[in-house]
C-alpha cells in the first residue's frame, strides 16, 4: 500500500483498490499461487484481503483460493484463527471502513513514517513486528496493535 502523488501507473489500475478519497492505493501485482483465475483482493462480505505468501492448510477445500480461505477464517473465527494458519502471510485487510496490516514471523512486511507498506524493503522503511494485527490510522499516521497471534510451525525458529 502506498501514498501516490499524481496519476497511478496504468499497469497497476486493474488490481488496485483506492482508499481514502483517491489518496492511498492498495495493489498486489503477483497472481495467487493456488488459483490463477483469481486476483487480489479476495472479497468476503464487506471485507477485502491482500495476501502475500503461501497457505498450505490441509483442511482447505479443493479449488479454494488461499487468500479467500484466509479472509473467511478471519471473518468467521476472528484474529485468533491466524495462530492456526499453516504457511506464510503478510496481509492488508479492509474491513468496515478500516485498514489492518499483519504478518507472521515467516513473511516480510515493511513500512515507513508515511505508512507506505511493502513486502520488500524500501528506502527508510522498517520491519513490521510479526504476530501482531495493527489498525492503520492514515489521518494521524499511526498504527495501533489490536490483536496478537502465534506463527504456526516456523521452520526458521531457533530456540
Summarize the structure.
This protein has 159 residues and is mainly β. The protein has helices spanning 10-13, 66-77, and strands spanning 2-3, 16-19, 24-27, 42-44, 47-52, 90-95, 98-103, 110-111, 117-118, 126-127, 132-137, 142-148.
Counted by DSSP, the helix tally is 2
Fraction of residues in helix: 10-25%
Q: In percent terms, what proportion of residues is strand?
A: 25-35%
CATH architectural type: 4-Layer Sandwich
H-E order? EHEEEEHEEEEEEE
Number of domains: 1
Q: Tell me, what is the CATH class?
A: Alpha Beta
Q: In CATH, what is the homologous superfamily?
A: Aminohydrolase, N-terminal nucleophile (Ntn) domain
Main beta-sheet annotation: 6 strands, antiparallel
Write down how many β-strands occur, each being a DSSP E stretch of 2 or more residues: 12
Distance linking N and C termini:
33 Å
CATH topology: Glutamine Phosphoribosylpyrophosphate, subunit 1, domain 1
Rg result: 15 Å
What is the structural class? mainly beta
Trace the largest sheet across and list its strands.
4-5-6-7-11-12
- Stretches where pLDDT is under 50 for at least 5 consecutive residues are 1-16
Mean pLDDT value? 79
From the spread of the alpha carbons, the general shape counts as globular
Give the oligomeric state of the chains in this entry, treating copies of one chain as homo and distinct chains as hetero.
Answer: single chain
